[in-house]
Specification:
- It contains 3 helices and 2 strands.
- With about 100 residues, the protein is mostly helical.
- The protein has a domain of about 45 residues: Histone, subunit A, CATH 1.10.20.60.
- Keywords: ATP-binding, Ligase, Nucleotide-binding, Protein biosynthesis, Transferase.
- It comes from Noviherbaspirillum saxi.
- Heterotrimer of A, B and C subunits.
Length: about 100
Amino acid sequence: MSLDLNDVKRLARLAQLDLDEAQAGKTLAKLNGIFDLVEQMRAVDTSGVEPLNHPIAAYQDNVALRLREDQVSEPNRRDDYQEVAPATQDGLYLVPKVIE
């Protein structure tokens, strides 16, 4: 798949981008480069390759993700914050109706 200059100009108009001819030409080259890369990746035979949850897992076994424990670290201060709100009810902020 590749684009032509008219495609780029149409996309630019839809995205409300103001591209001159030189910028449109550069954008065309970049987009077609991306499409070429996608085609190269599609051509690789990946049958029989198990999906990885992390790229390092291809080289090391038992890779643990470096995520912190999901623990509450801040105190619940909802009541403090809602004291200064104009209106609250049941822990929710009340706002004026803006759409009829």
